[in-house]
Design a protein that fits this description.
Helix content: over 70%
Order of helices and strands: HHHHHHH
Structural class: mainly alpha
Strand content: under 5%
Number of domains: 1
Distance between the termini: 55 Å
Radius of gyration: 19 Å
Length: 204
């Protein structure tokens, strides 16, 4: 069972009205909203492919924009942690190295996901009509679904522990929630894209 009193005490360290904290929350929420809206718009209109001359060029540009936004998000996350107090009981070597280990595992999931999917597979290429031949089932997809998202969440969790930051832990929860919503939004739509592909292949 969750110790509610401990949770209240932990997040009593967090000033949710702090400007830096609010900016970090908005940045975290904005990123998946941005790439889902843009990708669905592209899937419906092919407007980006027309502007950039090809689906691949458009996908690479969207991917670059996502990477820049993720960099901004990480910066806002870090600045929000720095502006809020540390939890003194966690400001020790044990917590630091635990966080470092969690971040390392998260990085492994993110990097291995990217290598398994490639650039277009990672950055919504299927919305641009760049479909993979078959579902990727190799590591890390053999261990869990959406390893890119949960690896990224683990990196933020580890980063928060390394800084002994209650604000970071709360922001990590926001990251997890935003990714959970993104998965619920993206999953069925992506499955429908591939279902149509399979239906098209069978009808030939």
């Amino acid at each position: 069972q969750v110790d509610v009193a401990a949770m209240v005490q932990l997040f009593g360290y967090v000033d949710v009205t702090d400007t830096g904290f609010i900016v970090a929350v908005l940045s975290i929420a904005f990123n998946p909203l941005f790439w889902n809206v843009v990708a669905r718009w592209e899937h419906k209109t092919q407007a980006l492919s027309q502007v950039f001359g090809s689906p691949h060029a458009a996908c690479y540009c969207l991917g670059a924009a996502i990477l820049v936004l993720n960099g901004v998000r990480s910066h806002c996350f870090t600045e929000a942690m720095k502006s809020q107090p540390k939890l003194e009981g966690w400001d020790c070597h044990w917590t630091y190295y635990s966080g470092l280990a969690i971040s390392a595992v998260g990085t492994l999931f993110v990097v291995s996901s990217f290598l398994a999917l490639g650039f277009t597979g990672t950055f919504l290429g299927d919305y641009f009509g760049i479909l993979m031949e078959e579902k990727v089932t190799s590591f890390p997809f053999s261990i869990l679904d959406n390893p890119m998202y949960w690896g990224s969440t683990a990196i933020y969790l580890g980063w928060s522990l390394m800084h002994a930051s209650p604000a970071g832990l709360l922001l990590t929860a926001v990251v997890a929630i935003s990714y959970t919503i993104a998965v619920l939004y993206e999953g069925p739509f992506t499955e429908e894209i591939y279902r149509r592909k399979q239906k098209g292949v069978k009808s030939k």
